[in-house]
Every structure is written in C-alpha cells, then in structure tokens.
Amino acid sequence: AGWFRRLLHKPKPSSVESLKSSHSASSLPSSSSSAKSSSSSGTSSATSSISLSPVSAVDISASDSPRWDKSYDVCICHSEEDVELVEELVSYLEGQPESFRCFLQLRDAVAGSAVVTELCDAVQNSHCWVMLITPGFLRDPWCRYQMHQALAEAPMANGRTIPVLKDVDRKDYPRELWNIYYIYMALKEKSFRQIRDTVMRYLQELCRSSTKGME
Fold first, then answer.
1. 30: which of 49, 106, 179, 207 lies 20 to 30 Å off by Cα?
2. Strand 183-184 relative to strand 126-133: parallel, antiparallel, unpaired?
3. Is the CATH number of domain 66-210 3.20.20.20?
C-alpha cells in the first residue's frame, strides 16, 4: 500500500519536462525574436547612418521664374511719418544680390492717379507686403485700407503678409493680423535681414511649387 501511494504522488515525467521547457521558453528569447532584434537593430543603425541630401536651392531669378509674373517682389505699406526708415529698408532690399523689386509709394506711384487705385494696384502687383506697423500706421486710415486690401488678396497666412512692429505694444497689434506672426523691430539691421529672408523664402516656395506643377 505504501509503495502504491508513493507511486500515485510521483510527478509524471512528461509534466516535469513540460515545466522545464516552459520555464526555459519564458527566460530565454527565441531564435526568431533574436533574429528580428538583430535585423531591426541593423536596420536602425543603417537608417541612422543615412545622411539626407540638402534641398537644392531654387533660382528665383531664372528667366522662366514665376517671380516675374508680378511687377514687384515687395510692397512696403507704411505711414508718411516713417518714410526715412522705409527708404533705408528699400535701399537694403534693392541692394541685395537678388535685387528685390520694391514698391515705394512716394517714388513709384503715378502722379495724377487716385490714391485708392495706386494702393490697390501696388497690392495686386506685388508678391509680398511688408506692413510697417508703427503708431503712425495705426493712425493712418490709408494704411488700414492697404492692409485690408492685402488680406483680401491673400486671406490665409501663407508668408505674403509680413507684419513688422516698431514702437507698438503687443496689445495694439491689429486684430486682423492676429493669425500671422510678426517681426518685432528692436535692432534695425536684424529686422531688415528677417524681412529679406521671409521674402526670399516665399519666392523660393513659389518657384518650387511652380516647378512641381509642371512635372
């Protein structure tokens, strides 16, 4: 009877083997998972070693560039109080290697034409519009009018409207432009470069989109 009871309580060899195999399986990675891990680490290292080629520069001055579809690259919207600063900005932009074409109202408006006509034509015939927002700009109804014309021409913030704040608190920033980032003019030279880079970026994107459309 005693040996019979011991026989009944003795674990079966198959159960012991199955316990060993399950313990072994849970503590050691399978060969397939090791292979996958090795494969993915190889892929990862291969991916990290790939260097992306830089985007090729776009020639905005090419003869077939859509830049020439409009008369001006930049229209400067400003008050008469800020003429000297605007003349400096225009001189800077026109003196760049790209020779940006700027519309300056006192210089380029046709004598004898209606102010409304000249302002609307300047907006429609320019790729970008720099809004020099100063206390004088906020007081000038013609500046407001030209700003609204620009927003009607391109209501989405696509880089064409470039607000530049000078001597104006953020709380006085025109509500119509709240969805557009602005440049704050603290250092004149730095702000001029920012304006130049923004215009350049838009013209390059314009040329790049035109090229894609032709493919």
1. 49
2. unpaired
3. no
